[in-house]
Amino acid sequence: MNKRLLATITAIVAFLAVAFVTTSHPNSSAKKADTVPTIGILQLVTHPALDEIHRGILAGLKSQGYSGQKIKIDYQNAQANQANLKTMSQKFANENAALTIGIATPAALSLAKTANGDNPVILAGITDPAGSGLVKTAQHPGNNVTGTTGDSPLSQHLSVIQQAVPHAKKLGIIYTTSDHGGEYNAKNMAKLAQAAGYDVKLYTISTTNDMQQVAETMASQVDVVYAPQDNGVASAMKTLINVTNQNKIPVIPAVDTMVKDGGLATISVSQYDIGYQAGIMAAKVLKGKDPATYPVKTITQGDMVVNLKQAQLLGIQLPDNMIKAAETKGEVIK
What's a Pfam family in this record (predicted)? Predict the structure, then answer.
């Protein structure tokens, strides 16, 4: 074999070796891109309370080191459309999201159904996750789903009703038939209120379009209205308030954003905190924590929120202790 042929063969072998190494070991930037996790966040509808949960989720993830180029966020908003929930959940599955986060029960249910026990699903502000079938129990979720629940402090809400509207006897409670959390809260409040001596009437809406008619009927039959933590009712809160104001009927809602929309007062659990804790839990699952054995975290600590503008409009003098509590640690809307 002459020297020229030997040199040619050696050059070919060297070239093939380099090509093999290059294709077998991608460059560092490509490898880094492959390790950036995608987080799918699915929100049921645009609403201040749910928006606060979303904001908290991002902050919670950031607190654990997941922000900027270290994470890819795919945020989808279904705008209360069931078909959108299904399509968006499938989108996350198709892009092989590392985990998904559901804001509101319908969003979480859609994600869990699509994941079918595989990729982790984090709950963000879901009422009664065990009753919804999302987890086996709050302490032992048992599958690929865990997260946070923001159960309403119903006994404290009842106390707000008793203090703010002491002469009320007939209590109307309204909820959305398709919202498991809303129904859960409404019926549990009904039991508490009946035990406290109220004449309780339950009213339902199927969609936000029903609110005007149902509210008009309710306002003619009750002394005070309780609006539970319910996505449909929250979305139609301004319609409800327009009707109840005309009839001088106060509304005691479940969260601060609903007070800002015209509710009289409440003890409100921070929706931001609910999202923040969900973000932290999502980060820990990304780092290897098993959602099946990661207990659902319940956020129950709430603060007083009063709407003095609404009280003046209705001719109601709120107790000084409620106003002071809101001024000290809470919020006063003027």
Answer: ABC_sub_bind
